[in-house]
């Protein structure tokens, strides 16, 4: 009797500890997802244009899952201490539902990260940058985002300035190739925002234009975002799995 | 003159050929001695290079840029005197000529010597021709055929080639397995729960029911009393 009492106390202690960790991880997940959703690198318009913005959906789900985990962990702690069958059954079922949602979020984030290839961004940029067709409002967002990206990171195009030469684009329709082999934002600009040497930029003289592509500047934050949501969620789910197994075991042993 | 115009190789320029322009080196130290001549650049379609007549006069309809490539098959532009090409070339200076850079006069028939953007990917050949008055006095060789860049439409970019990364496969498989185990565990507990766990774990305080023997006082007292 004493032995099973000890056993019970140890299991209770472990479950309470497990639930405390789940609660804290839930808060951390919510905070992380709020950070991502707040779009710190300003890349959301680009992703929305590619219609692969589901990593944002995954982050939104993560916010609510995090809060749910926190609330359920408190419920779990109360249920374990009171050894109440109903509370624990409610806890288990709600946790399973939350588990399923978080699983969906992780898999979505991982899958959509894979589809964000350079070719996708290249195609969207060529079709939308400086698209002067007034019917499309979202394209001006894309243009502003690209301009900001190219100015801040001193880069040009997705793979390089030759993107503008190898493919026709919406930009090319309104800007002649002789005057604008690539957009002016690809030039090295002075403090007033004018090219330091316009002829040098048009010729492509090293030092007067930005020769590297912006894909690294895009994929860095997007990767961090996607893997942050996916892998942290995965870790939480593994821990939650153990706690839930223990809870089911505990629940099955409580007398009516 | 034993000089062949060529696309600029030093320094390496990103825009050495674009869809409508190309860049050749200036003919420095080539036309030495022709101080009175005006040096013209002749741009011709590759096939028309051999039939070009040096006595063609620049600025006329036969050599007007605006009528290139049809019916004019070679035009003359970028006229300068030798003073613009000083010899020797200073170290570190970039001495190039960009053919096709003037967009403002491309449609202007009053500027037949316009250095306008080329109308197609070519191929083209160029040479330098020195004229004194309207008499040709020197020329370089024709360049090798120069082909410009052709742009493909963006719809030709294939965006479907993304493979599934190992990370995503790992996450999906492991999470699915964990979820399945949890569901199985829950179902098993609901249907067979109490029996199977009886061995180790009844976690409430067990109240053992003891049967208490009821000894009635008077039954025992009587035999003692008889003795």
UniProtKB/TrEMBL annotation, chain A:
GO cellular component: membrane
InterPro entries to which the protein is assigned, alphabetical: Tetraspanin/Peripherin, Tetraspanin_animals, Tetraspanin_EC2_sf
Main location: membrane
Keywords: Membrane, Transmembrane, Transmembrane helix
Organism superkingdom: Eukaryota
UniProt-listed CDD domains: uroplakin_I_like_LEL
Compartment(s) where it occurs, according to its Swiss-Prot or TrEMBL record: Membrane
Transmembrane domains' residue ranges: 12-37, 57-81, 88-110, 229-251
UniProt membrane topology term: Multi-pass membrane protein
Pfam families: Tetraspanin
Assembly information from the UniProt record: Heterodimer with uroplakin-3A (UPK3A) or uroplakin-3B (UPK3B).
Family, per entry: Belongs to the tetraspanin (TM4SF) family.
Protein name: Tetraspanin
Lineage: Eukaryota, Metazoa, Chordata, Craniata, Vertebrata
TrEMBL record, chain B:
Source species, domain of life: Eukaryota
Keywords, in A-Z order: Membrane, Transmembrane, Transmembrane helix
Transmembrane segments: 168-192
InterPro entries, sorted: Uroplakin-3
This protein's GO CC annotations: membrane
PANTHER family in the record: UROPLAKIN III (PTHR15446), UROPLAKIN-3B-LIKE PROTEIN 1-RELATED (PTHR15446:SF2)
Protein name per UniProt: UPK3B protein
Species assigned in the record: Donacobius atricapilla
